[in-house]
């Protein structure tokens, strides 16, 4: 359905775009992603599908028309970040329409793999990861759980449970999984905002926490000092960490995605861990390695990061001195986690746009709601994995 009210010039360009999108829309497999939606520009509105639209894409200028005409996910996302496109309605339904668009990966996609070969993985990571985690902690604390500030999946007993309680359960699970007890030395890979350091440290566990974010180090050091914890935080990459004394256990919450060379990371875990010691890790996952889209690679997690490819990871485990103690599917848990983060982000929209700008808000809006939709639809997965060094 098309209604028009505007100049002859704009409806003509708009109608060409409508024809292009309609053709693509009709090619979508029925029932998999053909969600009814509207496309609006000035006084012109076209509705795709035969039901009430779940959302409307609003085009604010001719550049928006050009961006949408590419049918390229990243080009369209960038137009949204710049305010040339607005979205009205259920954003999870918007992001569920991925099949309508494609991801034209260009030279930037290849460059993310070339850089580690030229400059080394550690140096590249220090640049890439800092770009994400060196955003002010106040921003992250607006949407993370208030009790622990954890930046990886929680473990829910029921969908209605508070995020804070689900995060506590995940931290308890991690400690139990590695048989942690007071006085143990545990390596925490990826300090984040101190969730594991504070929780384990208050139980008398001696945690050495690694981060390559300067802001993260300063924040976590304050937590250690404030609570007089038997812990330390080091500004050091995991692959460069050589303490000279082995740990009783290792915990890695959400950093496996930044360690795509599974053989190298497992070899280093083995070097750092006492015989019989356990490794706990949790991660978002995909069925193929390096399947991350251009938008995520450019605006959220730069570089050669990759969601965990479980079958490839377990193949490398089979070649190591680790044995698999357990694997748990966390797809629904991560859906609930990212949904809670996204809802909290939206509730602070005005403050975020005032302090950090509309662009940062929209980047994380697409990232968090897109992740929630991906977990909900089964496009991406998540796991907890426990390994024992034999």
UniProtKB/TrEMBL annotation:
An annotated GO BP: lipid biosynthetic process
Entry-linked Pfam families: CMAS, DUF7884
Keywords from the named record: Lipid metabolism, Methyltransferase, S-adenosyl-L-methionine, Transferase
Span of domain DUF7884: 42-96
Gene Ontology MF terms: methyltransferase activity
Superkingdom of source: Bacteria
Claim: Lipid metabolism is one of the keywords in the record: yes
Coiled coil start-end: none
InterPro entries membership: CFA/CMAS, CMAS, DUF7884, SAM-dependent_MTases_sf
PANTHER family: CYCLOPROPANE-FATTY-ACYL-PHOSPHOLIPID SYNTHASE (PTHR43667)
Family the UniProt entry places it in: Belongs to the CFA/CMAS family.
Name of the protein in its database record: Cyclopropane-fatty-acyl-phospholipid synthase
Name of the gene encoding the protein in the UniProt record: cfa1
């Amino acid at each position: 359905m098309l209604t028009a009210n505007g100049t002859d010039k704009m409806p003509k360009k708009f109608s060409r775009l409508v024809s292009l999108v309609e053709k693509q829309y009709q090619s979508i497999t029925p029932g998999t992603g053909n969600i009814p939606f509207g496309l609006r520009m000035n006084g012109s509105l076209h509705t795709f599908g035969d039901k009430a639209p779940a959302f409307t894409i609003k085009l604010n200028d001719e550049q928006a028309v050009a961006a949408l005409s590419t049918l390229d996910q990243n080009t369209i996302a960038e137009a949204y970040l710049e305010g040339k496109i607005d979205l009205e309605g259920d954003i999870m339904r918007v992001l569920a329409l991925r099949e309508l668009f494609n991801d034209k990966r260009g030279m930037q996609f290849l460059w993310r793999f070339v850089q580690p070969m030229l400059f080394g993985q550690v140096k590249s990571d220090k640049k890439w990861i800092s770009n994400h985690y060196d955003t002010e902690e106040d921003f992250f604390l607006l949407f993370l759980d208030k009790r622990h500030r954890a930046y990886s999946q929680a473990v829910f007993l029921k969908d209605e449970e508070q995020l804070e309680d689900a995060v506590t359960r995940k931290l308890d699970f991690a400690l139990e999984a590695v048989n942690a007890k007071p006085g143990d030395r545990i390596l925490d890979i990826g300090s984040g905002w101190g969730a594991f350091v504070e929780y384990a440290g208050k139980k008398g566990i001696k945690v050495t926490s690694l981060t390559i974010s300067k802001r993260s180090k300063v924040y976590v050091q304050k937590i250690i000092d404030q609570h007089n914890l038997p812990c330390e935080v080091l500004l050091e990459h995991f692959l460069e960490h050589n303490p000279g004394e082995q740990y009783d256990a290792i915990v890695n919450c959400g950093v496996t995605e930044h360690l795509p060379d599974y053989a190298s990371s497992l070899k280093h875990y083995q070097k750092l861990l006492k015989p019989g010691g356990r490794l706990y890790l949790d991660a978002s996952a995909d069925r193929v390695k390096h399947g991350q889209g251009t938008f995520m690679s450019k605006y959220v997690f730069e570089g050669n990061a990759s969601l965990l490819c479980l079958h490839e990871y377990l193949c490398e485990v089979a070649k190591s001195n680790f044995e698999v103690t357990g694997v748990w599917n966390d797809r629904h848990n991560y859906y609930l986690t990212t949904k809670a983060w996204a809802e909290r982000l939206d509730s602070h929209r005005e403050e975020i746009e005032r302090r950090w700008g509309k662009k940062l808000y929209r980047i994380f809006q697409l990232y968090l709601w897109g992740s929630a939709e991906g977990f909900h639809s089964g496009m991406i997965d998540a796991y907890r994995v426990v390994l024992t060094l034999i």
